[in-house]
Design brief:
cell division; centromere; 29 helices; mainly alpha; Zw10_N; cytoplasm; about 65% helix; Zw10_middle; single chain; 8 strands
């Protein structure tokens, strides 16, 4: 066969073009059929979801009528899942979806309403209408009723508690409902049992209901012991666990499908932190001992706390981890130290802010009321042995001239009784530190240092006005500071070898505070001395420098300047003379013959007599007491201040009144 014959057998060009056209038509038909199939498949899937939604709603209604709440809730969730799938279809919107969504919402609310009604039958709160719901009187009238036996209809559907609560869990509303119950439980039952020692829980079990109520018993104690409080709280949880909360919930926790929790555990997670804080702040805090000798007895509180938590864990209210409540109880040594230090500082501040003028006499034989300290121990004994070995027995190194036993004693003086008590508090606190743990010992030691630092800062500020006005108080304050400084010299040494080893190496000292206290007392005393010196110089300013005393006039002036005294009798006579002048003096103003018309001119005496008002104020001073004079002065704004200078008023006060603290206080207000 030649090439020409072979070419004749090949398809023609027109034939190929026809085949190409037929192929394109076939592809187009296939594409259209494929798209149609996809649309039909989508429609079928949507119809299937609509059918599932409809079936779920029907089964939900049927289950709700039979009070099968868990099944009804599960069908609602199936309907919700189908609706979400329909709404997720892009480009395929149906008007019916909005109606389905509305229907689902209505049925969900209907379901929640029925569940709410059932829940209110299971746990019935009977609360007083009083607004003060947390008061003892209101709590006594509060009750919680728990239904114990289901009705005949509910016996068919299963345990009512489990059914209702599991349905809440399926719908995602259990947390909200349980949170409300937990807050009521805390407010009306748990917290009152902690706060009010007289409150006692009472239980009553009837045929179909368990009633929990309260009564108040007369008690003299301000706080219940932790053991008593734990027993009350444990009783409440036992009742709740038996009649309400021992319900397993078929829901995964933290994406672990094989993990199930009980209602008690959920409630515990919601209220335990708040309940634990209340137990710590209003129960355990009050049980912390105030004396180190009672710390051993606190073991009972720790054991009671452990047993309390163990009981709650057995009822599944608590998880297996150690809680803050038990950690607080076990850390009693630290809490004791903190509480003791706080009490010491509070007591010290109360003493510092009390009156200074209540004094006691201190003599060289006086000592702080303190039990005898124990022997220093081996360290002092060793030092004594070493010293004795250095001294030869045949040589007498004792000085024949001995110092008096009072050489280094504080001289006899009067100090504030509050300062004496303050020093006793310091000694007692240090004695307490000697019997405490190392950490507590250190805290108590520095609390004593804080006492004296607080005195240094508080007393001069709190009593500033009185220390400036009253010379006697300034002198007492001086003695107080010297008394404290005297004890600070040896206070650390007395306890040096009885405190923890950390403080024995030179840290237990108060000597560094001595100069500050001496300076504090001296500065106040010297400031008052300067004030007194100024007043004396002011009084003697009219004494004519005590020159030419043989001259009678100079002698009288000097004598008057020194004495500065107007007797009460002289004051009365002066007042009588002044009154005569005030009553009869205006009668010289009689320009008219008719006496009744002259009264107008007699009332205008202050206009023509420049010192007339000064004269009348002087009359008032002659008969007034110190407080009345201060009132007339009125901080430089009263009528007395308008007529006399501060120096003149002070001179009159000094002349008319004896030198007393009241006079000094009045003088201080005239400025």
């Amino acid at each position: 066969m030649n090439i020409s014959n072979a070419c004749k057998d090949l398809p023609s060009k027109d034939f190929l073009l026809q085949v190409q056209r037929d192929l394109n038509v076939a592809v187009a038909e296939f594409t259209e059929l494929k798209q149609q199939l996809e649309r039909d498949t989508l429609v079928l899937s949507i119809l299937k979801k609509l059918q599932e939604f409809d079936t779920a709603i029907k089964e939900y209604n049927s289950a709700l009528l039979e009070k099968k709440y868990v099944a009804a809730a599960q069908q609602l969730e199936k309907a919700r899942s189908s609706l979400k799938m329909l709404e997720s279809r892009q480009g395929f919107e149906l008007k019916i979806l909005k109606a389905l969504g509305t229907e689902l919402t209505v049925q969900t609310q209907n379901m929640l309403y029925h569940l709410g009604e059932e829940w209110q039958k299971l746990a019935v709160w009977k609360l007083p209408p009083s607004k003060e719901s947390s008061s003892l009187e209101s709590v006594v009238h509060s009750e919680l009723h728990l239904r114990t036996v289901p009705s005949k209809e509910e016996e068919i559907a299963g345990p009512p508690v489990a059914s209702v609560l599991q349905a809440f869990a399926v719908l995602g509303e259990l947390h909200t409902k349980l949170k409300i119950f937990g807050q009521l439980l805390l407010k009306y039952i748990l917290k009152p049992l902690i706060l009010y020692p007289s409150l006692q829980p009472l239980t009553e079990e009837q045929s179909d209901v368990f009633i929990l109520r309260f009564q108040s018993e007369a008690l003299t104690l301000d706080h219940s012991s932790p053991m008593e409080v734990f027993d009350k709280i444990k009783l409440i949880f036992e009742v709740l666990h038996k009649y309400l909360l021992n319900v397993p919930l078929e829901q995964p926790v933290e994406d672990k499908k094989d993990c199930r929790v009980t209602l008690a555990e959920l409630l515990g997670d919601m209220i335990w932190e708040e309940l634990s804080d209340c137990l710590i702040q209003n129960c355990l805090v009050n049980s912390i001992p105030t004396n180190s000798s009672k710390l051993e007895q606190y073991i009972e509180v720790i054991k009671s706390t452990e047993e309390f938590e163990k009981a709650l864990k057995n009822m599944q209210f608590l998880k297996g981890d150690t809680t803050d409540l038990l950690k607080y109880a076990r850390n009693v040594n630290s809490h004791f130290a903190n509480k003791k230090c706080q009490d010491v500082i509070v007591a010290a501040r109360n003493l510092m802010t009390s009156e200074i003028h209540n004094t006691v006499k201190i003599t060289p034989d006086s000592c702080v009321a303190l039990p005898r300290l124990p022997d220093p121990g081996a360290r002092d004994h060793l030092k004594t042995q070493k010293t004795s070995k250095l001294v030869h027995h045949d040589v007498n190194l004792e000085n024949e001239t001995k110092l008096s036993q009072y050489t280094f004693s504080l001289p006899t003086c009067r100090i504030s009784s509050s300062v004496e008590k303050l020093m006793e508090l310091a000694y007692q606190t240090l004695l307490e530190a000697t019997a405490s743990t190392d950490q507590c010992c250190i805290q108590l030691f520095y609390s004593v240092r804080n006492i004296f630092q607080l005195f240094y800062d508080v007393v001069p500020t709190y009593h500033k006005e009185n220390l400036q006005k009253l010379p006697q108080l300034a002198a007492i304050h001086h003695n107080n500071c010297m008394y404290i400084a005297h004890h600070l010299l040896t206070l650390g040494h007395q306890f040096r070898y009885r405190l923890t080893n950390i403080l024995c190496d030179g840290a237990a000292t108060f000597v560094d505070m001595v100069p500050g206290f001496r300076r504090l007392g001296m500065e106040c005393f010297l400031a008052q001395m300067r004030v007194q010196r100024g007043e004396i110089l002011e009084r003697l300013s009219s004494a004519r420098n005590f020159s030419n005393m043989d001259d009678e006039e100079n002698y009288c002036a000097a004598n008057k300047a020194i004495r500065q005294d107007i007797s009460a009798e002289d004051a009365d006579k002066l007042y009588s003379l002044c009154r005569t002048m005030v009553e009869e003096g205006p009668q010289v103003f009689t320009p008219l013959p008719e006496d009744d018309k002259n009264k107008k001119y007699q009332e205008e005496v202050p206009v023509y007599v420049q010192k007339w008002m000064t004269f009348k104020e002087l009359m008032i001073i002659l008969q007034a007491n110190l407080q009345e004079i201060v009132d007339q002065w009125a901080d430089g704004k009263g009528p007395l201040a308008a007529e006399f200078s501060a120096a003149e008023v002070k001179s009159l006060i000094r002349a008319l009144f004896q030198n007393t603290e009241r006079r000094a206080a009045a003088l201080a207000k005239i400025k």
